[in-house]
Amino acid sequence: MTDTDVVVVGSGLAGLVATAELADAGRRVVLLEQEPEASFGGQAWWSFGGLFLVDSPEQRRLRVRDSLELARQDWFGTAAFDRDEDHWPRRWAEAYLDFAAGEKRAWLREQGVGFFPVVGWAERGGYTATGHGNSVPRFHIVWGTGPGIVEPFARRVRAAVDRGLVDLRFRHRVTGLVVTGGAVTGVRGTVLAPSDAARGEASSREERAPFEIAAQAVVVTSGGIGGNHELVRRNWPARLGPAPRRLLSGVPAHVDGLMLEATEAAGAHVVNRDRMWHYTEGIANHSPVWARHGIRILPGPSSLWLDAAGNRLPVPLFPGFDTLGTLAHIGSTGHEHTWFVATRKIVEKEFALSGSEQNPDLTGRDLRLLLNRVRAGVSGPVQAFLDRGEDFVTATTLPELVAGMNRVTGGAPEVALETVEREVLARDREVANAFTKDLQLTAVRGARSYLGDKLIRVAPPHRLLDPEAGPLIAVRLTLLTRKTLGGLETDLSGRVLRPGGEVFDGLYAAGEVAGFGGGGMHGYRSLEGTFLGGCLFSGRVAGRALAAAL
Fold first, then answer.
1. Prior bond to 57 cis, omega within 30?
2. CA–CA gap between residue 268 and residue 411 (Å, rounded)
3. With CB atoms counted within 10 Å of each terminal CB, which end of the chain scores lower, N or C?
4. Peptide bond into 399 cis (omega under 30)
5. What gap in Å lies between CA 16 and CA 138, rounded to an integer?
6. Peptide bond just before 244 cis, omega within 30 deg
7. Angstrom distance (rounded) from CA 51 to CA 516
8. Which of 462, 445, 463, 466 is nearest to 454 (CA)?
9. Residue-wise DSSP of 317-337
10. Which residues of 219-250 are buried (b: 16+ CB within 10 A; e: fewer)?
11. Which of 264, 183, 175 is nearest to 216 (CA)?
């Protein structure tokens, strides 16, 4: 039994930020984490480190004209809020947009966070001005990727440990909240056996002893549900088609959603549980860290995207344009995988891999390695997948490529050469036509008008069957779990609400468990680069509000 001012549940990015803010205000915090110390920093450590910023110096240097008004138009067109329970998510979205266009960059810079100078253009949309997607590039990559964004907050927390304000307790799994007189007054759970599991690896669930901690308030920052495929399928919305039988995991197994369920059981209100963000471009990791470990290809716009039978996906479902629109279409095909067909020339320019460990140049802040991004040739991490990845096929001719595709899937379903050949030849005829009706080629040419894309992201348009651009490469893509967009309903101070809208005294939440703010500030879809930022913002809001309230 322990007594403290605040208990924070979860040592991911939102938990670190909330703890750092509370400690800076002089509050005593016990920070609990079910995993061993090797996983300190949580899921954010594994990320590519993209942050959504509006009208930044990096954008302006690349002649990108952005504004708060344009960002708001893009956000709300993407979110498509349409429910009564979207009241707080709307308000969180407005507050986060003001933060992203205001003090966010300066606040991070003060803590030593730097940015790669080329701004990425994710989720391009492809619809009308009021529809889904980013109108301009806004994906700012942290110099150091995920570890670079975790580092300053982990440092602040450890400094608070040295000052005696924070008590870090690993292998403490919270299983319930203590509620007294209608208010949260602590947590209870189980101490797990020590584990030497490396970051991300499955750790033992052997129980050693119960524990209980009394506190004036509890902040839940336990993350989402992406590692719990049973829970993902249970919440899967009909609008995205049937719940997939085969899923890759973009997050470790401990991202299990159990604390979300425990908090709801205590009386908290969970909203928008059917809103989720999973990727369609998943590939099986050739060197997995956790079970069903998948990596996402961050694609440029040039690959030909085919369904499982070899038919081209409809407009505007091009690589990098509309993640959930593509996911919903895949659900209507009767099959769960798709294919990229590309050339080596496309792969070397346009294939990036999500994850800090897949980007040693940016993660390690290695300028020598970084120069390879503007040079010809396939990057080392991508080449490793070409050599060892079970989803990759390389061939010099189209018949050989299609035969390889069928070997990968065992012919389930059989891809017909004539189907793929028809799509490839039709697309290639349009390449030489400056007045093409192929909207993907129009989009590729438009992307290359942006200097950042032309330099390191988008290959010059060329025929897929051009031998000078070869060999041909096909990649089987599988659905990859990632983010929970709904969660605990919170007000603008991060206070958790009960069903009906009453404040649940003593209980706060931040990060993915709260839908990154309000129970789902993204609505139905994300603009990308907004997940880490949502953890930063909601953790800061909850930490500062709670510190002021105590």
1. no
2. 48
3. N
4. no
5. 25
6. no
7. 14
8. 445
9. --TTT-HHHHHHHHHTTT-SE
10. bbbbbbbbbbbebbeebbeeebbeebeebbbb
11. 183
Q: Parallel, antiparallel, or unpaired: how do β-strands 50-52 and 139-141 relate?
A: antiparallel
The 3-state DSSP class for residue 12 equals strand
* 550 residues of the chain, pLDDT tens digit each: 679 999 999 999 999 999 999 999 999 999 999 999 999 999 999 999 999 999 999 999 999 999 999 999 999 999 999 999 999 999 999 999 999 999 999 999 999 999 999 999 999 999 999 999 999 999 999 999 999 999 999 999 999 999 999 999 999 999 999 999 999 999 999 999 999 999 999 999 999 999 999 999 999 999 999 999 999 999 999 999 999 999 999 999 999 999 999 999 999 999 999 999 999 999 999 999 999 999 999 999 999 999 999 999 999 999 999 999 999 999 999 999 999 999 999 999 999 999 999 999 999 999 888 887 877 789 999 999 999 999 999 999 999 999 999 999 999 999 999 999 999 999 999 998 889 999 999 999 999 999 999 999 999 999 999 999 999 999 999 999 999 999 999 999 999 999 999 999 999 999 999 999 999 999 999 999 999 999 999 999 999 999 999 9
Query: What is the chain's length?
Result: 550
How many other C-beta atoms can be found within 10 angstroms of the C-beta atom of residue 387?
10
Burial class, 277, CB count within 10 angstroms (exposed 0-12 / middle 13-18 / buried 19+)? buried
Place of tokens 């049973």: 230
Terminal CA-CA length for the chain = 21
Task: Supply the DSSP string of 425-457, one letter for each residue.
Answer: HHHHHHHT-TT---HHHHHHHHHTTSHHHHHHT
Compute the distance between CA of residue 438 and CA of residue 440 in angstroms, rounded to an integer: 6
Question: Count of CB atoms within 10 A of residue 85's CB?
Answer: 17
Amino acid at 533: G
Helix (H, G, I), strand (E, B), or coil: what is residue 547? Answer: helix
Contact 13, 511 (CB under 8 A): yes
Closest Cα partner for 156 from 22, 290, 268, 61? 22
Q: E strands along 308-380, which residues?
A: 337-343, 351-353
> Residue 3's beta-bridge partner residues?
214
Contact present, 440 and 346 (Cβ < 8 Å): no
Query: Which tokens hold the place of 505?
Result: 């005294």
**Under DSSP, is residue 120 helix (H, G, I), strand (E, B) or coil?**
strand
Q: Is the separation of the CB atoms in 173 and 192 below 8 Å? A: yes
Instruction: Identify residue 322 by its one-letter amino acid code.
Output: D
3-state secondary structure of 63: coil
For helices 68-79 and 87-101, the axis angle rounded to 10 degrees is 150
Alpha-carbon distance 419 to 427, whole Å?
13
Six token digits for residue 35: 């995993």
Structure tokens that stand for 21 in this block: 């803010």
